Structure formats: C-alpha cells, structure tokens
Amino acid sequence: MSDPGPRSVGDRPAEDPAWRLSRTAFDRFLVALDADRDAAAAAYERIRSRLVKFFSWRGCTFPEERADETITRVIRKIDEGLAVRDPATYCYGVARHVLLETLKQQERERDALSRFRPAPPSVDDDEDRERRIECLQRCLEQLAPDQRELILDYHRGDPGDRIDGRRRLAERLGIGLNALRIRVHRTTDRVEGCVGSCLRRRGDVK
Amino acid sequence: MPDELDDALLTRYLTGACPEDEQARIEERYFADDATFERLCALEDALIEQRLDGTLSPEQRAAFDREHADGPRRDRLLAIAAMRRAARDRRGPATARPRRLAAPAWMAAAAALVLAVGGAWLLLQNVQLRRSLDRARADGAQLQQQHDADGRRIAELQRQRAAPATADANPQPTAAPPTPPPRAVIATIVLRPGLLRGPQGSPQVAIAPAGDGVRLQLEIDDPLGFTAYRVELRTAAGDVRWTRDGLAPSRDDASVSVIVPAAALQAGEHELVLQGRAGNGTYEDAARYYFDVTRR
C-alpha cells in the first residue's frame, strides 16, 4: 500500500481562513467514496470508525476530534481538485501526519502542565459507574432477548470460571471462541451507543 | 497460509509495545480489512477485561491508565464493568457461591460434584436429544404431508388440463364446467428483526382471498454463521401456528426466505421466530420478527 504523499496536506493547518468546510465540499467527498449516497454514507462511517480507533490506540486524547480533523483535511484536498483513488488509504496517510502533530502537542502540554495537571479520573469512579449502570439496565432491556442473554452469559462468573463458561457458550451457539468474542463485541457496541445517548439525555456526558 | 498478524502481535499493538514499522503494517491492514479491524476491537475488549481483573502487567496497566484515562477506552471499560455487575445481579443471592473448604475436603467435594453434575448433564443432553429427535420426526411427517398434498394438487392440475379434450369426445351437456384452479398469488414482504415500528406501526401483510400464501424475506442484521434455519410462526398469544425447517440463508448470509401458507395466517398480530441450527443439531433463537395480517 503506497503512501499517497500527503506531505503538503499534513503540514498545512486546517484553520486556513481562505477555505471553509461547506456542504458542497462534503458532498464531493461522499461522491469520492461512492456514487451511491447510501453506500458513501456507510463508507464514511467505516473510515471514521477506523480513524477514531487509530488515534485512540496510538494514545491520542480526544480521538474523535482528531478523526474529524483528518477527514476535514481530506475533504479540503478533494474540494481543491485532488483526485483521490482510494479515500481510505489517503485518510490513513493524512491521519499519520495529524498523529505526529498531536503527539508533539501533547508532549508540549504535558511538559507545561505537569506541575498543575490534576490526577486523571479514576476508572473506579463510583458515581459515574452508578449512572452508567442505570442507563445500561435500560439499554439491556431494549435488546432482543437472545442478545441480552448473550451479553449476560458472556460476562457471568468469576475470572476463573469465565473462560470455561465462554467456551461452553460458544459450543452451545455452534461457533468458535473468536467468533463469539466478535459477536459480543458488536452487541456491546450497540449497548455502548445506547448508554452514551442515555447519558447525554441526562446531561451527564461532558 | 498462516496469518502473520496473530493475537499476540495485535495485543502488543494495542498496548503500545510495537515498533513503528509493525504499527504501520497493522494499521494498513485494518484500514483495508474489516475482519482484522474487528479482531482488534474484540482484543481490546479482552484487554479491558484484564484491566478489570487486575491481570495486566504493571507496564501494561500503567500505559492503559495513563493513555486512556479519558476517552473511548475508558467508556468501554465502564460499560464492560457495568455489564459484569448486571450479570452478577441477575444471578441473585440464591446462587451465591459457597465459601471455599480446606484443600483435601474441597477436592473430594469437587470430585463428587463433577460426577453428579456430569451425570445430570448427560441425562439432560439425552432428554434434549430425544426432544430434538421427536421434533425432527414431527417436521418430517409434516413435510411428507405437504409433499403428498403437492402431489395430489399436481395430479389434479394435470387432470384438468387434459379435461377439455375428453369433454369434446364425450359431450355431457348436463355436467358443470370445471372450476379453474385458484391462481397462486405470492407477494414478498421484507421483514427486519426486532420490535422496531415505523410511523405506521408493524409491517402489514394483506392476504388476498385467492392467495396461496406470502413470501417473507427475513433480513439478518449480522451474519450469524448458521447453515440452516427453522421458523416458528406464532400468534400474539404465543400459540405456534406453523413451522418450517431446513431453510438455507441467502448466499451473503443477509436473509432467509420462507413461503408461509395463507391458511396459517389469521388476521391480527404475528410473531415469527427465526432459529439457527447449531453444530450439535439443536436450534437456537437467532431473531424475531413482528407483523400484522389483514385478510381481504
């Protein structure tokens, strides 16, 4: 997979006053993804989800914003007339430039604020967990019964029992452990999306 | 050809323990390949579970907490932690685990338990297998009846087709003209799983008076991997009206089609349960569909 050579894109800041993200520019980007609008929307979501994970897995803060920044830069290049044969690969190339900029920026912030930064929120924040559990209960009830039981069966038990339980669950469903893990991951995605909406409705998400 | 991106390498990627060239190789792959991306996401869930279980190495835990104190991974961790608690709460106090005994007594008790549970499990499997066999026999009998009925209908149609020539040779002015066979009227309705209702409510299925039935195309949200399916048609009260076995999914595993005879469709709400056949021959609920029937 060759580098699309987005060096000039990566170096140019997105806040150039001469260009604005417009509906027309966004539509041109969708057309570059696929002539069919529905297929283009699916391709957009696919690329964006990968970009979010890319920035998250590479240790960037605010990975969704970095993903949107990347896509905005790609939209700009296409709007300015660049013909992009493979938008996903091109987005990855641009993302690598955004990553380098982000990591440098994070390092500068870390140095500057290291004396003043408060301790990161504990992953055991009880109050936050209780709010999520309330939303989770509601979201689990909205799942189809078989999907709900899948999630609960998958997470049931102590650590020592869980592996055997999952092996038995996979056998019962007639699939392998990896396929079970992926099926649970997809259902968890749905639940997590529902929980996020629930928390936003309650005004709890920052 | 073995996949060089094994789980160990992908886990090192997720914990930031890969050199830059390996990272780029993995990233190029998951940007192009959905299966690799899903594997990584599922492995990340497993990593989060290890964080909750406290089984990450000190270096991995430090990287996890430092890099992901905010953001999507923390949200995922909280979601999985909440699911575990929900699973624990569902189990309830009646199934609380007994305290551990001293080692020798515990081992003897565990051995006895394994034997008892093993025996009970075998009995249960036996009962389930017998039920599956009975169900298969009933389905077979139903298929045979349907086959016989189809055969009689074909023979009837053939006789009617031959009737005009016979009538001309031996005119019977007092005999009534033969009734034309009812036309097969098969409409196709596409159903999506779950209780999603549009602005107009559940999907509507109208059965014509001369109709023989309706073809239902049951869309499947995620490929389930089953090679055969069974459908159960139930009324709103839960009574099973009709079943059909041995249905194959579409080539892309995105749908299953079945023709439901008109006689099985009463006016009112219906539930259709799609069940996939697992490797051991039993059926597992895969999806449910809902629709309303009106008869014209």
Please characterize this protein's 3D structure.
The complex is a heterodimer of chains A (206) and B (296). The two termini of chain A are 39 Å apart. Chain A has nine helices and no strands. With 206 residues, chain A is mainly α. Chain A is globular. Helix content of chain A is 72%, strand content 0%. Chain A folds into two domains: 7-113, no CATH class; 126-201, Arc Repressor Mutant, subunit A, CATH 1.10.10. With 296 residues, chain B is an alpha/beta fold. The model of chain B is unreliable at 92-101 (pLDDT under 50). Chain B has six helices and eight strands, in the order H-H-H-H-H-H-E-E-E-E-E-E-E-E. Chain B folds into three domains: 7-90, no CATH class; 113-164; 186-295, Sandwich (Immunoglobulin-like). Chain B is elongated. The interface between A and B is large, with 60 and 65 residues.
Topology (SSEs and partners):
The complex is a heterodimer of chains A (206) and B (296).
Chain A lengths: L6 H5 L11 H11 L3 H21 L5 H17 L7 H27 L12 H17 L2 H11 L3 H15 L3 H25 L5
Helix pairs in contact in A: 2-3, 2-4, 3-4, 3-5, 4-5, 6-9, 7-8
Chain B lengths: L6 H8 L5 H13 L1 H20 L4 H10 L4 H20 L11 H67 L16 E6 L12 E4 L5 E7 L9 E7 L4 E8 L7 E7 L6 E10 L5 E13 L1
Parallel strand pairs in B: 1-3, 2-8
Antiparallel strand pairs in B: 3-6, 4-5, 4-7, 7-8
Number of helices of chain A: 9
Q: How many strand units of chain A? A: 0
Can you write the helix and strand succession of chain A as a string?
HHHHHHHHH
Task: Tell me the name of the CATH class of the largest domain in chain B.
Answer: Mainly Beta
- Class based on secondary structure composition and strand pairing of chain B: alpha/beta
Here the CATH topology of the largest domain in chain B equals Immunoglobulin-like
- β-strand percent of chain B reads 15-25%
Backbone structural class of chain A: mainly alpha
Cα separation of the termini of chain A: 39 Å
Largest sheet of chain B, in brief, is:
5 strands, mixed
Total helix count of chain B? 6
Count the domains of chain B: 3
Q: Which blocks of ≥5 consecutive residues of chain A have pLDDT under 50?
A: 1-14
Largest interface: A-B, 60 and 65 residues
Rounded mean pLDDT of chain B is: 73
What is the count of β-strands of chain B?
Answer: 8
Give the overall shape of chain B, derived from the CA principal axes.
elongated
Tally of structural domains of chain A: 2
Query: Which assembly state applies to the chains in this document?
Result: heterodimer
How are the strands of the largest sheet of chain B arranged?
Answer: 2-8-7-4-5
Helix content of chain A: over 70%
